[in-house]
Design brief:
Elements: E1 2-3, H1 9-18, E2 42-46, E3 49-54, E4 64-70, E5 81-87, E6 94-96, E7 105-110, E8 117-123, E9 130-137, E10 144-149, E11 156-162, E12 168-176, E13 182-190, E14 193-194, E15 205-207, E16 211-216, E17 229-237, E18 241-248, E19 252-256, E20 266-271, E21 277-283, E22 290-298, E23 301-303, E24 310-313, E25 318-324, E26 332-338, E27 348-355, E28 362-367, E29 375-381, E30 388-394, E31 399-405, E32 415-421, E33 425-429, E34 440-449, E35 453-459, E36 468-473, E37 479-483, E38 492-493
Antiparallel strand pairs: 1-38, 2-37, 3-8, 4-7, 4-9, 5-6, 5-8, 9-10, 11-17, 12-16, 12-18, 13-14, 13-15, 13-17, 18-19, 20-26, 21-25, 21-27, 22-23, 22-24, 22-26, 27-28, 29-34, 30-33, 30-35, 31-32, 31-34, 35-36
Length: about 500
């Protein structure tokens, strides 16, 4: 027999520390077993480093932007850590520097010069590190409240519900946090499939190191007006943060985050109770058509929208269904699943939501989102009455979660509440810190039962316009699986 070198815990820890933005580490493969043939168990350990990327907030000179960052509280004595978000330019100064878990920090910026941000958190500040951009523009084409959660950089993003139609300006924001250039491709899929641009537009877009670039989608397919389309953003080299900023003439503006990865069943959480118009946009990336069952998870249970119970989506094409005022006064979430469980084709989806009417309309988007998992957090909630509403949806089984409101950026005492969410329902909650001042964070932890999906609606009315933005909450991947050491940490092979 040939003996491998012993694997020490220090070596495992060093390897984890070297990885940036690590979400999970798998347990040993089948050939990595102990001498007695039993697979080594895995322990969960906090991540040691997290990386976030935030897009540039606005091109408006009258924009007012709030940056907020937060790490959920950690038990006393866990150690030290550092975190900072700085402008996405070389030699940029820090914009936010959190000092300890459990206390949010904020900063403000005005005008079109507010920067895109990149940054990392280490040590005790890394697990669950969250950041948010919230921008308010009172007048003009980009009028509205635009909110977006900062994300880890990646290589593959799907954006259903984009448009190149007249009256729409959809910009893909690409931010490169690394020291090498990133090369990006953008493809657009309409109701007839791939919209082929002339001259290779959308291919090999260079994003310089430590920089951000915006791409107007209509410029990729001049002369082609797609009322509803799906954008696919991939990298040939490097990685980027990607989000789409939408401005619609006479309606409003907001960010469209990426849909969760393609799946046979999806949840689109947190459609506001007073939504006047809800338009579902779905796309099938694979080669098989999808027949989707459409349901609304309301407070009293799941219902099928009359006349829109199913949606057929052809492979490689974008499909749309107008659900109108489907929520009818009660906040809800859309549940998409295969009409035939034996024929589940992976899809991506998002909804365009409009509140108000006439000259007082406002626009927002809700993408399909993954479950909150063990824990998820959203920053920059406001203590004003009716400003913050948290929606919780259990698509398949009853579940219990714990919701915690952190102190505000100006002080206050944290508050928490346990909530039971019945299967097929959406429950809403307004929770704020006691005596809190300034913005605060909301953290959702799954205690028992099935998966829970969540979204936060932030409403900041202005001049009679119901300005709002919706942000889904996603599992913060604050721990990784680390193989437990065997007796002598030796692994033998025959």
């Amino acid at each position: 027999m040939k003996q491998r070198a012993p694997l020490t815990l220090a070596a495992v820890t060093a390897a984890l520390a070297a990885l940036t933005g690590l979400a999970a580490l798998t347990a040993p493969a089948a050939d990595s077993s102990t001498a007695d043939g039993k697979a080594a168990a895995a322990a969960r350990m906090p991540v040691e480093r997290s990386l976030l990327v935030c897009p540039g907030p606005s091109s408006s000179d009258i924009a007012e932007t709030t940056y907020t960052a937060f790490t959920p509280g950690a038990p006393a004595g866990e150690g030290k850590g550092s975190a900072r978000l700085l402008g996405a330019t070389k030699d940029a100064k820090p914009v936010l520097e959190p000092k300890e878990p459990g206390k949010p920090v904020g900063a403000t910026a005005s005008g079109a010069d507010a920067p895109a941000l990149t940054g990392s958190a280490d040590g005790v500040l890394a697990p669950g590190w969250t950041a948010q951009l919230t921008t308010k523009v009172s007048v003009g084409r980009a009028r509205g409240v635009l909110g977006v959660g900062c994300t880890a950089p990646g290589t593959d993003f799907w954006f259903p519900a984009v448009s190149t139609a007249k009256g729409r300006e959809d910009y893909v924001h690409l931010t490169n946090p690394d020291d090498a250039a990133a090369i990006v491709d953008i493809k657009l899929f309409g109701p007839d499939g791939l919209a082929k641009p002339e001259g290779g537009a959308g291919e090999s877009i260079r994003v310089d190191p430590k920089s951000t670039k915006t791409v107007l989608l209509s410029s990729l397919v001049p002369g082609i007006q797609l009322a509803d389309a799906t954008a696919h953003v991939t990298t040939r080299a490097g990685r980027v943060g990607a989000s789409v900023q939408v401005a619609e003439e006479g309606v409003g503006a907001d960010w469209l985050p990426a849909s969760t990865d393609p799946a046979g069943s999806l949840v689109l959480p947190g459609i506001p109770a007073d939504a006047a118009s809800v338009r579902l946009v779905a796309f099938v990336p694979g080669e098989e058509d999808a027949d989707l069952k459409v349901r609304l998870a309301a407070p009293g249970g799941a219902i099928s929208p009359a006349g829109s119970e199913q949606l057929h989506v052809k492979a490689g094409m974008t499909a749309v269904v107008d659900l109108k005022d489907v929520t009818r006064g009660e906040a809800g979430s859309l549940l998409l699943g295969p009409a035939d469980a034996k024929k589940a084709a992976p899809v991506v989806a998002a909804v365009r939501v409009v509140r108000g009417s006439g000259a007082k309309q406002e626009l927002g988007f809700v993408p399909a989102a993954g479950p909150v998992g063990t824990r998820a957090t959203v920053a920059d909630n406001r203590p004003d009455e009716n400003a913050t509403v948290l929606s919780l949806t259990a698509p398949g089984a009853d579940a219990k979660v714990k919701v915690t409101a952190s102190p505000g950026t100006g002080g206050g005492e944290p508050a928490s509440q346990e909530v039971t969410v019945k299967a097929g329902t959406t429950q809403t909650l307004a929770l704020a810190p006691a005596g809190g001042k300034g913005s605060y964070a909301l953290t959702v932890e799954t205690l028992s039962g099935g998966p829970v999906h969540a979204a936060r609606t932030l409403s900041l009315p202005d001049e009679g316009i119901a300005m709002f933005t919706v942000q889904p909450l996603s599992d913060d991947h604050s721990t990784v699986a680390v193989p437990r050491a065997a007796q002598d940490l030796s692994v033998l092979t025959r």
